[in-house]
Amino acid sequence: MNRVPERSLECEALNDDLIEFALGTLSGRSRSNVLLHLETCSHCNVELDSLAAAADTLLWLAPEAEPSLGFETRLIERYQSTDPRRRVTRLRRASLLAVAAMMAVVLGVGLGAVFTNHGGSNNPVAATRPVTGRLMSDGQTLGEVTISSGNPSWMIMNIDTGDVTGLVWCQVTLENGRNVTVGKFTLSHGYGSWVAPLTSSANDVRSARIVNAHGTVLAQATFAT
Amino acid sequence: MRGGYDDETPDEALLSGIAVGDDRAVLAFVRRYQRRLFGLALGIVGDPGMAEDVAQEAFIRILRHAAVYDIRRGSVATWTLTITRNLAIDAVRVRRAVPTAPEDRVFLSLVSNERAPDDTAVMSESVRQAHSALASLPIDQRRAVVLAVMYGRTVSEVASMEAIPLGTAKSRVRLGLAKLREAAARMEAS
């Protein structure tokens, strides 16, 4: 059973300020004092999380409202114009995603469970952060694979091989050396993208690769340990 | 294995897609949250134009930070709402807009003696629980908590707006938040 961290006299003295801190309305010297205290007080850290969570429940009370026409378009354009990761293949990718989506639905139901059942961890633990690797081939970057944190975590892959069309397989190598086929999907004119749920920790995956029907590795990503 | 994003796609999966630059994930996320974020911003700032600016900025921040979202910090929904709330309060302060009393704003139903809206049957579980939790507070504590949480008013400002001593305002906020926490815990357990 977890022990509740003890409350000190200093905690008592800062109680009101801690509440305002949780509400985001504390400033100046009082805020500095609370921050200093939080560095060493586990009791108040627990209390702060609890107060903030209670306050956050109220945010759901705001009624939904429809923004003006064009809100969505303006937002997407603004985001895309300032996102440094944007690539010129964006439009091409979007159009081909529908094909990948359809194939994934046909082929993919339950394939995520392959990874779940044979993964390297018997006790799934959420990764501390998402892991991302570049899918490389002959020194060139062909895409990116990300495994999100959380339980389940999600594997998201985008690849653009340039010319390959047809069925390919995604395999991963786990920390214990085991190779697991996560699933298969279709490349259309070189491009493919899909999302797969994983219940194993992202930390267990050491590498991911895309192979064709002949077992040839088209691209591989390695994750830092 | 899923090839696209739909209404059933978890928020965490959308953020992961956003993190790798997937346009469809961005679009699905914006469509899922735009009415809620805009509604919250509008409720705080009171002006539709300003609320759209706030909601846009909130989305941009969320999309740019999708890769570093940490599930241990709470749900994606709460994370997005908190970012929007903070930006809305900052916008009010920076632009020196003067938020009026809650009675004059969209949060009227939150601080009145009226019961929760009649459409609770069609509300999401989170919204319904929030209404129930707030309704469990005495009216004076309800007003103080709403002023502090939804409008970012300091305890001193709450005292001034409510024409009560500072100590009373502190007490109302403290007790209100504590009861809100208890109510939330009870609903979580049931």
Task: Provide a quick synopsis of the model.
The complex is a heterodimer of chains A (225) and B (190). With 225 residues, chain A is α+β, with helices and mostly antiparallel strands.
What does the model show?
- The complex is a heterodimer of chains A (225) and B (190).
- With 225 residues, chain A is an alpha+beta fold.
- Chain A is 36% helix and 28% strand.
- A 4-stranded antiparallel sheet of chain A has the order 1-2-3-6. A 4-stranded antiparallel sheet of chain A has the order 5-4-7-8.
- In chain A, helix 2 packs across helix 4.
- Chain A starts with 8 loop residues before the first helix and ends with a strand.
- About 16% of the residues of chain A have low confidence.
- By secondary structure, chain B is mostly helical.
- Chain B folds into 2 domains: 98 residues, RNA polymerase sigma factor, region 2, helix turn helix motif (Rna Polymerase Sigma Factor, Chain: A, Orthogonal Bundle), CATH 1.10.1740; 91 residues, Arc Repressor Mutant, subunit A (Orthogonal Bundle).
- Helix content of chain B is 67%, strand content 0%.
- In chain B, helix 2 packs across helix 4 and helix 3 crosses helix 4.
- At the A-B interface, helix 2, helix 4, helix 5, helix 6 and strand 2 of A face helix 1, helix 2, helix 3, helix 4 and helix 6 of B.
Inertia-based shape of chain B? globular
As a percent range, the share of strand residues of chain B is under 5%
User: How would you classify the helix and strand content of chain B by structural class?
Assistant: mainly alpha
User: What's the tally of helices of chain A?
Assistant: 7
Largest sheet of chain A: 4 strands, antiparallel
Secondary-structure content class of chain A: alpha+beta
Low-confidence region ranges of chain A: 94-128
What's the helical proportion of residues of chain B?
55-70%
Number of domains of chain B: 2
- The CATH architecture of the largest domain in chain B can be named as Orthogonal Bundle
Number of strands of chain B: 0
What is the overall number of helices of chain B?
9
Number of domains of chain A: 2
In CATH terms, what is the fold-level topology of the largest domain in chain B? Rna Polymerase Sigma Factor, Chain: A
Q: The biggest beta sheet of chain B, please?
A: none
Any low-confidence stretches of chain B, pLDDT <50, length ≥5? none
CATH architecture of the largest domain in chain A: Sandwich
Q: Judging from the principal axes of the Cα atoms, what is the shape of chain A?
A: elongated
Oligomer state equals: heterodimer
The first-level CATH class of the largest domain in chain B is given as Mainly Alpha
